TrEMBL record:
This is TRAP transporter substrate-binding protein. Belongs to the bacterial solute-binding protein 7 family. InterPro entries: DctP_fam, TRAP_DctP, TRAP_DctP_sf. It comes from Bacillus daqingensis. Keywords: Signal, Transport. Gene3D superfamilies: Bacterial extracellular solute-binding protein, family 7. Residues 1-20 form the signal peptide.
Amino acid sequence: MKKKAVLSVTMAFGLTAVLAACGDAENNNGGADNGANNAEENVSDNNEAEAANSEYSSGDASYVIEAGIGLNNQHPQYEGLLRFKEIVEEATDGDVYVETYHSSQLGDDREMMEALQLGSQEVTIPSTAPVTNFVEEYAILDFPFLFANEDVAMEVLNGEIGDELLDSLEDQEMVGLAWWENGYRDLTNSTQPVETAEDFQGLTIRTMENEVHLEAFSELGANPTPMAFGELFTGMQQGTVDGQENPLATIYLEGFYEVQDYYSDTNHVYSPFVFLMSKQFYDSLPDDYQEIVGDAAQEAGEFQIEQNRAQNEELLDALIDEGMEHSEVTDEAREEMAEIVQPVNDQFAEQLDQDFVERFFQAVEEAEEMHQ
Ligand code: TK8
């Protein structure tokens, strides 16, 4: 197997800090309301708007949940979070109050997970990719071309092996309450149409802070640059990166078409979201409230997944209307990409607990038989 220099996670985070320092001037306002860099203003706007919409108030509650996500308030993930709020507040008659934040107002995925560990924030719902920096087994979820379709993914995640992955977060002071869905990731860039594996050559692509992704894009000949989501729009605008990869809903709802010209339906990775709660906070809740937040995360997740899939399916035309050129990636081209990155999957699989890897792939196989 070819040995490659891997950007260490520490280095990746260092880079993010530098980029954050350079990019705090402009609000990355895409087509949608994305206020990642106007955090303070938005936090207060957001809470006022929210307070007006809720019949409950934080002052009357015994427990307050600060819940934050990286995506903006147009995204189905935020709708899911609002559904969680509604269910929890109603079920506890306002005794548990949920404050919702979007657009990285409380920090990026990694920072919010650290805040959960410290008990200074209660809920976040990251993509699983950055969770790898806390529990290494999560790397397996981000193997390119792993899940044949969304039903296979959900079957695996909602089965025993998925439960095991949720439980493994407890050692990291977090409680995994449910799987939500980000979806299949596609590539956009501002340089060239990408249809085949060869077309990745030389493209500087922002990746999530995840070594599997870094290695996979290197293998394809691209220059991957890990970066927190909150800095991505500015990074593309300023040309720090040529491109990025995310599901359609994100590409459209974050207004990426304003700074990107080419969209390729690569579908290269299925990206789950995982609903996380601070263990300190969870342990402080009475049993019946623990059950309520667990059920609410699950139920709101089902709603989020439904909305998310609809948007991921519908938004291609809207993206083209906004002027993006659609490069169609054939199954054959995808197979070639998959072959090129397979050594990366193998290499990471070797580093993980072998019993876990075996059981994981067996679960994938069984799920595939059920959802062809
Ligand atoms: C938002 C992220 C985002 C992810 C990424 O917090 O970083 O590209 O896809 O959705 O989790």
